[in-house]
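Batch job 17 of 40 flagged for manual review because the log was empty.
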Amino acid sequence: MKQIPTKPLRQIDIDDHVLGSYDSGHDGPLLLAIGGIHGNEPSGVQAIEAVLEELHRHQPNLHGRFLGLAGNIAALQARRRYIDEDLNRCFRSERVDARSATESVEQGELAALVSLIDEYAGGHDDVCFIDCHTTSSPSVPYLSVNAHPPSLIMMEDFPLHTVIGLERSIPGCCGEFLNQLDYRGFTFEAGQHEAETSREHHQATIWLLLANEGGLTLPDPSFIDRQESLLRQTLGEPKRHFELTAHYRIAADENFRMRPGFKNFDKVAKGQPLADNNDGLIRSPSDGRILMPLYQSEGDDGFFLLSPSD
């Protein structure tokens, strides 16, 4: 990842969030990729920069404009999930409307991002987005999709497991905010934070976004097929759709400790020990698949449980 200029945290220039853009002069949608909403997840930023470099090198035909944004600049500089509060819980109407407030570092980051998205989306009738994330536990890549009909249609063009409905339990996410603007897209969890493959998965999914929604034409006609194949090989089982059934939210000072060894989509049984806290064992409330078991010091989402919906 390129070095992000160091400056006072509360004086972040709006232009620092723009990683770059590309268009070839053809009308079409705004194709938006966001990375680093969490500062300990730099893979998306690195992938966006790599895709932009290739686009500018080869100058392929694209309908619309590709725009890459970095999310939480201050947290990326500090290599922390966030500075004062989780930016991916701040995209709520009352926070978006209070753009000039400076109660936290993340409020400034929110104001900059929302202003940029407004500015660039203004010239397009359609906006498609991918919000690039990684997880603290090992994971196959998957899409997290809100119950937004155009996004549910769009997700079917990607060879990835999908999790539908997390916005019911974690409001204020960037993807939910963009869907409320009727922009099409989803959050993409590419793998574990430090895994080199996470950046590869992010790049592959961005390339598919450009091909599926922007009609990208590349000199090598097999390139997009290879990106799709790369993602398909990660599934481990036929593509599945899952829905949220339970969410363990960590209370203040409970000393939550996830038991080791859980990976995303692992099967768990009702009553199985999953974690510990000051009161003892935390057991699974039902049969299902575990999602995002917490193996990092920051965050208050202990784990989620899923059930197949297909």
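Reviewer: the log was empty due to a logging misconfiguration, but the result itself is present. The first helix runs from residue 43 to 58. Unflagging and moving on to job 18.
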